[in-house]
Amino acid sequence: GHMLEADLVSKMLRAVLQSHKNGIVLPRLQGEYRSLTGDWIPFKQLGYPTLEAYLRSVPAVVRIEASRSGEIVCYAVA
Description:
Largest sheet: 3 strands, antiparallel
Shape: globular
Strand order of the largest sheet: 1-3-2
Number of strands: 3
Strand content: 15-25%
Distance between the termini: 28 Å
């Protein structure tokens, strides 16, 4: 079911973020996730219109900050 999938996605996302200590810019996150897992982050199947909306729904996993240049950067939550 979806709860299981959501749990798996957040675990994989955490692994991706933890391998990038200095954060990942949002546009690169899908590619990094795919290179680790072989899949895209299925945010639409999880019920979110955008990847950013999904990321903001899992604050225990990802911290989102705007860089000085206005890019969205994602960090692992310690």
